[in-house]
Design goal:
The chain is an alpha+beta fold.
C-alpha cells in the first residue's frame, strides 16, 4: 500500500534542442585511450565521458523521531528532465522522491556543501559539526562521469524547519517535502515508489546505524 503522497504533477515542454552547442552545464570529453597491463598497451579505443565544474555531490539523510517515537526521514520531490526525456521505453514521469542533495562547489568542503544544501532544500540550519558521515563516498555512474557522492546524516528538529529558499531554478519551485517513517520509506523503495538509487542507498545506510 503506498505511503508516499502523490508527487507534484508536472510536465516538461521541450522548447528547443541545443544539443549541437558546445557550451553548457556539462562538457563532453572524447579521448583515445589504451589499457597498459604489465607494460603492454592494448589496442587504442575511443572513450566518451562528461565533466562539469562542480563535479561531486553531497547527499543528506535528515531524520527525527515523530510523536510515536518512530524514526522518520525527510524526502523531497525532484524534477529530473533526463528521466522524462528518456528516448526508449519505459517512459517515466519527471518527478522522483529523493533525499536532499546538491553539488559541492569548487573549493568547498563536502560537509559545508551538505549544510548549505540542507538549508536550501529542506529549510534546516545546522552546523558542520552536526553533520555526520554516512558511510564511504561512492561513484554513482563511473562509466561516464567521475562524480563522487559524499553521504551524511543529521538529526533535526521539525519545529525548527523554515521555508526552504531553493536555488532559484524552476525545477525546485514545485518541490514537495514529506517526512515518513524510515521503515516505510525503505518499503517504498522495494515497491518502486522511490526509484532514485542514491536515496535508497542513503536510507539503507541510515537504517544500519540507527
Amino acid at each position: 500500500m503506498p505511503i508516499l503522497p502523490d508527487p507534484p504533477k508536472v510536465a516538461l515542454d521541450l522548447l528547443a534542442d541545443r544539443s549541437d552547442e558546445r557550451e553548457g552545464f556539462l562538457t563532453l570529453k572524447r579521448y583515445d585511450l589504451s589499457v597498459v597491463d604489465g607494460g603492454k598497451p592494448s589496442r587504442a579505443f575511443r572513450y566518451d565521458m562528461i565533466e562539469r565544474p562542480a563535479l561531486d555531490a553531497a547527499i543528506m539523510a535528515a531524520h527525527h523521531r515523530d510523536d510515536a517515537g518512530r524514526r522518520c526521514v525527510y524526502l523531497r520531490s525532484a524534477i529530473r528532465p533526463p528521466v522524462a526525456l528518456r528516448p526508449v521505453a519505459p517512459k517515466m514521469d519527471a518527478v522522483l522522491w529523493e533525499v536532499p542533495a546538491g553539488l559541492v562547489e569548487p573549493g568547498e568542503e563536502p560537509v559545508a556543501a551538505a549544510v548549505r544544501e540542507l538549508r536550501e532544500e529542506l529549510g534546516f540550519s545546522v552546523s558542520p559539526g552536526e553533520m555526520a558521515p554516512l558511510g564511504p563516498h561512492a561513484f554513482p555512474a563511473p562509466a561516464f562521469v567521475g562524480e563522487l557522492h559524499y553521504y551524511f546524516h543529521v538529526e533535526v528538529d521539525p519545529a525548527t524547519r523554515s521555508e526552504p529558499a531553493g536555488d532559484g531554478s524552476p525545477l525546485e519551485e514545485a518541490a514537495r517535502i514529506v517526512s515518513v517513517p524510515l521503515d516505510e520509506a525503505l518499503a517504498a523503495c522495494k515497491r518502486g515508489e522511490v526509484r532514485d538509487a542514491k536515496t535508497e542507498l542513503a536510507l539503507r545506510r541510515l537504517a544500519e546505524i540507527l
